[in-house]
């Protein structure tokens, strides 16, 4: 989706601000000799920003305004190395709650709803983001924070909460507890706003079914405000995102080149109006694609597909980007196949070849027939034909590491 005139103007204001602030990106711009972007082509020449740039700026090197204007910081958890600190101005905080309010509106939440918030508060962006959006909307926040399931369930009943904000795993846990304790009749939930984790269709349907609620996927990351920059609508065909606050591109993770709308790749985000810590072309490592065309809900906001994984997992074969999770999902639809598989990619006779070894379940399975069906489904859904070999249960090597399931012999020597 090409950047439009209005977005370009906003980018130029960001560029000026960054050069003036002389933060890491301002320096990058100066080094590249860029002081203005005039066209969509110019925009694509802007350097990327990476998580490592943000770590290097620890603690406050991202700040692009005088410190007096910063009213709050948030931080993303660093599993390795230094965390990232994101400074927010009052306007940033307000913009974020405005976006979050839109998310609730997209999900049909109104000022009559009572919203139980179970993500954590504090340094990270989840709890407070959910809450400020509720307040902006005029609904009632029930700010529980994480854990303490007994208390969660008590408040859920006594407060008659109608909306649950949670991670997918916690929503599932609550659903199971409600069932186990036979509380279904005293719970008033209608909608779930679920964020921050990757999750499959099976889990989604379980939460929906067990709680009897509508589910909305919320998208976001701490580096770009936090959750709330996009959300799915009732048609559940991807997530709308707020293109007046962010410009979103999808690039080939290997080459960094923009892919066509509809093609899978890595999400790259540019903040259009952020003051405290504007980011230009930030590589999220989240994999998705832009969904072309207008959504059936009539919203003019563009859409990305559900996040399918991290770019580190992506494999390219015969010009098609895919990731093992797509194959896993297809396999899960075949009752005769187990979840054990191995993918070997090689370069034979000047052609990329993908061989897929899959274990059958025990019992009588027609290996050849199952293999043919699987190959045809992969071709139809992903776009290339793998060589499928269905093998007996227990034949494939077991490994702790999931990555061992994909062996790319093209780059091994
Ligand atoms: Zn829609």
Care to describe what's here?
With 413 residues, the protein is an alpha/beta fold. It is built from 11 helices and 21 strands. Helix 1 crosses helix 2 (24-32), helix 5 packs across helix 6 (126-137) and helix 8 (168-180) runs parallel beside helix 9. It is globular and about 70 Å long. It binds zinc ion (ZN). Zinc ion (ZN) is lined by residues 233, 235, 240, 295, 297, 299.
Catalogue the unreliable spans. none
Measured distance between first and last alpha carbons: 39 Å
Portion in strands: 25-35%
Q: What class do helices, strands and sheet pairing give? A: alpha/beta
By DSSP, the count of extended strands is 21
* Distinct small molecules: zinc ion
Strand order of the largest sheet: 4-3-5-6-7-8-9-14-13
Looking at the structure, what is the overall shape? globular
State the helicity in percent bands: 25-40%
Largest sheet composition: 9 strands, mixed
Give the number of helices: 11
Overall mean confidence score, pLDDT: 91
Radius of gyration: 23 Å
């Amino acid at each position: 989706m090409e950047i439009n005139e209005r977005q370009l103007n906003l980018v130029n204001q960001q560029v000026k601000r960054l050069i003036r602030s002389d933060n890491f990106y301002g320096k990058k711009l100066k080094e590249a000799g860029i002081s203005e972007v005039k066209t969509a082509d110019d925009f694509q020449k802007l350097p990327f920003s990476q998580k490592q740039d943000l770590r290097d700026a620890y603690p406050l090197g991202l700040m692009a305004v005088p410190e007096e204007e910063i009213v709050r910081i948030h931080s993303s958890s660093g599993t390795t190395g230094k965390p990232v600190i994101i400074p927010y101005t009052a306007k940033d905080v307000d913009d974020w709650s405005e976006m979050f309010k839109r998310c609730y509106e997209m999900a049909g939440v109104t000022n009559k709803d009572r919203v139980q918030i179970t993500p954590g508060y504090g340094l990270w962006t989840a709890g407070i983001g959910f809450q400020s959006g509720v307040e902006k909307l005029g609904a009632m926040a029930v700010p529980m924070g994480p854990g303490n399931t007994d208390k969660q369930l008590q408040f859920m009943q006594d407060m008659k909460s109608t909306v649950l904000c949670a991670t997918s795993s916690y929503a599932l846990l609550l659903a199971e507890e409600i069932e186990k304790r036979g509380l279904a009749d005293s719970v008033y939930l209608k909608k779930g706003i679920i964020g921050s984790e990757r999750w499959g269709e099976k889990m989604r349907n379980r939460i929906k079914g067990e709680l009897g609620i509508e589910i909305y996927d919320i998208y976001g990351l701490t580096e770009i405000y936090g959750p709330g920059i996009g959300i799915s609508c009732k048609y559940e065909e991807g997530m709308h995102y707020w293109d007046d606050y962010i410009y979103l591109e999808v690039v080939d993770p290997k080459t960094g080149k923009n892919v066509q709308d509809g093609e899978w790749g890595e999400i790259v985000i540019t903040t259009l109006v952020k003051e405290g810590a504007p980011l230009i072309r930030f590589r999220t490592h989240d994999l998705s694609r832009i969904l072309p065309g207008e959504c059936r809900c009539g919203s003019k906001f563009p859409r990305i597909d559900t996040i399918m994984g991290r770019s580190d997992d992506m494999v390219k074969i015969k010009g098609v980007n895919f990731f093992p999770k797509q194959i896993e999902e297809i396999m899960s639809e075949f009752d005769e196949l187990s979840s054990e598989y191995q993918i070997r990619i090689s370069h034979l006779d000047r052609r990329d070849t993908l061989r897929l070894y899959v274990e059958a379940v025990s019992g009588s399975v027609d290996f050849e027939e199952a293999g043919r069906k699987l190959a045809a489904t992969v071709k139809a859904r992903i776009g290339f034909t793998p060589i499928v070999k269905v093998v007996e249960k227990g034949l494939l090597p077991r490994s702790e590491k999931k990555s061992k399931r994909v062996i790319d012999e093209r780059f091994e020597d």
